[in-house]
Amino acid sequence: MRYSSGRTYSLALHSDAEADLNRIYEEDEDVGADIEAFLEEAKNNQVTLDNFTRRKYVEYGEWPFNVDEWQETKQSKYKYNLWRVRLLWLTGAAAKYRIVYAFHPVEFRYYILGIVNRDFKYDPQHERSKQILAAYDALNIPRY
Fold first, then answer.
1. Global pTM exceeds 0.85
2. Which of 2, 60, 65, 67 is at 20 to 30 A from 115, Cα to Cα?
3. What is the CATH number of the domain that holds 43?
4. What is the 3-state secondary structure (H, E, C) of the chain?
5. Terminal CA-CA length for the chain
6. Closest CA to 61 of 38, 80, 30
7. What gap in Å lies between CA 16 and CA 55, rounded to an integer?
């Protein structure tokens, strides 16, 4: 009897994050290309995607990055499954961005919901936060 392999994860770029990436490309094409290259690498690498929901995870490989939860959402009654990744190899202007994403456990898919400035405080009352949370809910991603 043959056993099927385990579920594989996928990655999708929400239209809001796509707009963020386009804006970044307009500001600095190299920075946009670096972020897009990371997303393409992650999309095609199950080991990377496996680590996208490990608190305080740091990857030291060819594409070093750091993962953590969006802490402010833990205060609500129904917690969002939101995360952020910081790209550690980027320096200068490129280092100022964080990729915000959510994991949809039913679909086994990571949704990139936004690419925000490092100074973004993740305050749920901030307009950009509200946009990210609305996208999360529109995608029917379960809360826990």
1. yes
2. 60
3. 3.30.2310.20
4. CCCCCCCCCEEEECHHHHHHHHHHHHHCHHHHHHHHHHHHHHHCCHHHHHCCCCCCCEECCCCCEEEEECHHHHHCCCCCCEEEEEECCCCHHHHHEEEEEEEECCCCEEEEEEEEECCCCCCCCCHHHHHHHHHHHHCCCCCC
5. 37
6. 38
7. 25
What tokens were used for 65? Answer: 């990055």
pLDDT band at residue 58 using 50, 70 and 90 as cut-offs = very high
Residue-level pLDDT at 74: 52
pLDDT at 92 over 90: no
Number of residues assigned to the chain: 144
Mean pLDDT within 64-90: 80
| 2 located within any domain | no
